[in-house]
Each structure stands twice: as structure tokens, then as C-alpha cells.
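Class II aldolase/adducin N-terminal domain-containing protein, pasting as requested.
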Amino acid sequence: MVDPSVYEGEILFAASGRRPTGETPIHINILRKRPDVKALIHAHPPILTGFSLVEEEILSKPFLPEPVIELGPVIYVRYEEPLSQRLAEAFDGVIDYSNAFLMRNHGVMICSPEGCSRALELLEMLEAMAHSVQVAAGLGRKICTIMPDEIKKLERTIRTRGLPMPGKPGVIRDLRHAYAGGEGL
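C-alpha cells follow.
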């Protein structure tokens, strides 16, 4: 565990005989840039990791309402050597625009402004979406995405429920634009 308020990476807990993750620089870098984030989960679930291996950025598309609302577009982060400062810096240009990131040929990073339990729920939500897309692809038919006018309606749902937009507060103002490859500015 790394205290997000101590950006030098003060160790709060490490199991007996274990050192904290070698990927602490990634966590610290993200927490510096996203003060709204209360918890990060970096994991290697099999389906999401499989999607990180595919050239096309399939999961960046709006397939299901809940991930659109809670996570925003899944952003693919270029491959860099694990445990490196270069991998930490690969997040620099994109960290504000989502709560879900697939690291190419590596795994996933989830940002949660609500803490550890919610970060785990978001990870499970994303893995479930990836599984659904995998099943749909196996049917051999074109996979439908949520249309832009329907994404606009999901923004209404976000406001009605009093939820924040995905990503760093105040950055994404238009989910349709975010899913069209822009940042929502």
C-alpha cells in the first residue's frame, strides 16, 4: 500500500518478508496527476490481458452502459518495460481521460475516486464487459456499440444520479466526443 497523500511513496503496509511492488513509480505518477483517485488496481485478469495483446483497440468502444458511465473509454497505454519509469510516464498524456487503462502486452490499471472496494468492482465490471465482447465476437456477427445519441442520454443518467463524469473531474464534458477519439474538451 502506498499513501496517496505522501507522493514520495511512504510504505504503509508490506506483508512480512515482502517488498512493495516494483511498479510503485506507476502508482505514484498516477496519484500525482489524479488527486481525485483514492485507489488504484493493477492486475492481469486473463480476458482483459488478452485484449491488451490485440492490435485493434476493441475495448475503447462503448459496448455497455455501466462501463460507459463508470469508467469512460478504455484507454490503451503503449507498451513499455515493466517496473520502469518509462511505463509510468506512458500514462502522462492520457491519465485524465478515463478510469480504465489497458497496458499493451501487460495488464490493466483501474482508477477509483471511491476507494479500494469500488476499484475492485470497476475491475470486475470491465472484465465482465471484455468477456461479453469475447462471447459476442465468437458468434461471428458484427458487434453493436452504443450509438452517439444514446451516449448523450447516458450523460443525463450521470447527472440524474449525481455521479461524476469518468476521468479527472472537469476534464471530460462530452462523453460522445471522448468515445469519438477526442478528450471531451
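Note for the archive: Strands lie at 39-43, 75-77, 100-103, 107-112.
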